[in-house]
Amino acid sequence: MIRAVILDLGGVLVPWSNSATYRFIEREHGIPFETVKRELEKQLPLVQTGTLSEKEWMADLFRSQGMEPPKGYEEIWGKTFLGSTYDEDVEKITGELRARGFRLAALSNIEPSRAAYIRRRGLPRCLDVAVFSSEVGLRKPDRNAAGPDGAIFEYTFGKLGLPASACLYVDDDENCLKAAGRVGLKGILFRGSESLREELAGYGLLS
After folding, report:
1. Which domains does the chain show, CATH number per domain?
2. Which residues contact 37 (CB under 8 A, 6 or more apart)?
3. What is the pLDDT of residues 23-82, one digit of tens each?
4. Which of 106, 111, 142 is nearest to 12 (CA)?
5. Strand ranges for the chain from DSSP E
6. pTM over 0.85
7. 6 near 187, Cβ under 8 Å?
């Protein structure tokens, strides 16, 4: 029986794409979007687990293009996330789940500056647990670094005090869902709030 729902942050709870930051760098510093994307995503998993600092990471981007890092370069990643908001429709769904007695968790591959911003701003009150990769040194295998490791999922449902069989996982990345499935989590591919509501109803979690 499902007793908890675990939701991805970026792309599910927060309608956000790193493309916004890549476009900012292209516009402000003249590095083509695809180059920014390629260079930053090479080391993104290291940043998301706290192995590489954001300062080093951003400096490497500019130096890879023969440029000295510009003033304030170390703050680009965090500052371009400041306009992010929670998806009101998804928040409404989580509120309904909470009212029905389900436990809720957020699970995200996220960099230190953005994790700190989310903590400062405040998480949705209905959440029982929030697991951020940069805080625990683990990450979900996704399109940037696919692999068999499901330790962060086990850590998350462990924080909820529940087995995998009692949790449902929602993500917009199919690789993450496949990895979650390997540790026993049932999954929903997020395609929007309406689809999410329908699939949760299919599991009997919402009417």
Report:
1. 4-15+85-202 (3.40.50.1000), 19-79 (no CATH)
2. 18, 19, 22
3. 999 999 999 999 999 999 999 999 999 999 999 999 999 999 999 999 999 999 999 999
4. 106
5. 4-8, 103-108, 129-132, 167-171, 186-189
6. yes
7. no
